[in-house]
Amino acid sequence: MTLSETGRSSDPVVTADGLGMTYRAPVRHSGPGAAFRSLLRKEHRDIEAVADVSFAVGAGEIVGFIGPNGAGKTTTMKILSGILHPTAGQARVLGFVPRRRQHEYLTQIALVRGSQPTAGPAELTVLDNLHYRRVLYDVPLSRFHANVEELTHTLDLATILGRQVRALSLGERMRAALAIALLHRPRVLFLDEPTIGLDASASAAFRRHIARYAADTGATVLLTSHYMAEVEALCPRVILIDHGRLRYDGSLPALATNLSPYKLLRVTTADSVRAVDWDAYGQLDATDSQQVTLRVPRRDVPAVTGRLLAEVPVADLTVADPPLEAMMDQFYRAGVA
């Protein structure tokens, strides 16, 4: 299925117009004979990583850019940050063409990749790297000290500021990379799996900081993450990409409606659940001594809720969408057409 609900800003900061990226990759056959022949006659095949992707993101928006592994998310991020040149279409960020990599453009954006956290030269301490960043991005000294103080508190940097980057763990390196990326107060943040390696407490602190940063500065944030709880916490809007193509652009609640035709009714009863014919109300999903979970078609939820309250000794009743993680897992497994 192809999902559709556009959610474009009238005053975009980030625009992608028909973006495409095709790689030319060598074909390698197994065996010594094939290896020798490949020296004389090289074979290649085209890999379409991104195909005709278009969207727009406005100032102050925090947008989740989601999809399965290999969907084209990181490739799109690299195009928007200017690391890759698209083979089709065009991109604009803050009015700049990213691939030109102008200094004025680079000082207004930041790209953070959780898979390759860059915390600066490994021989320098974290604080030295922050000073180095200050010089590169012309950050006034007074603003530098204020920003470092805020980032130290938010990302718990106090114990690692004086340590060499090479001696940091993955989680510590990730926190340092985030601090360095945010030091110059970028107007656009490209966050590619930014909380890889962070524990639950650090991840929560990071989410709070990003939400507050976007609210206070009006920064635009494009976030890729496989942690749906992170997307739910930060992103009112999501863009879903699969096999290099855009499949959905809209709100999270609307995506949930598209992905799942049912809701979950969790019913806690005053008496044993065994005395009730639950099949008369919906599909039984889970049960224990005094609580059941029913799958009920969305259109039937009001009527079924009313019947339950009238006919069953209900102590508590909640209505919820299925967990987003479960819905996305089902979606990725089924694929889209």
Automatic annotation (TrEMBL):
Residues in ABC transporter domain copies: 34-268
Keyword Transport: yes
GO biological process, one term: response to antibiotic
UniProt entry keywords in alphabetical sequence: Antibiotic resistance, ATP-binding, Nucleotide-binding, Transport
Record-linked InterPro entries: AAA+_ATPase, ABC_transporter-like_ATP-bd, ABC_transporter-like_CS, ABC_transporter_ATP-binding, P-loop_NTPase
Subcellular location: Cell membrane
Highest taxon of source: Bacteria
GO molecular function: ATP binding; ATP hydrolysis activity
One of the record's GO cellular component terms: plasma membrane
Listed name of the protein: ABC-2 type transport system ATP-binding protein
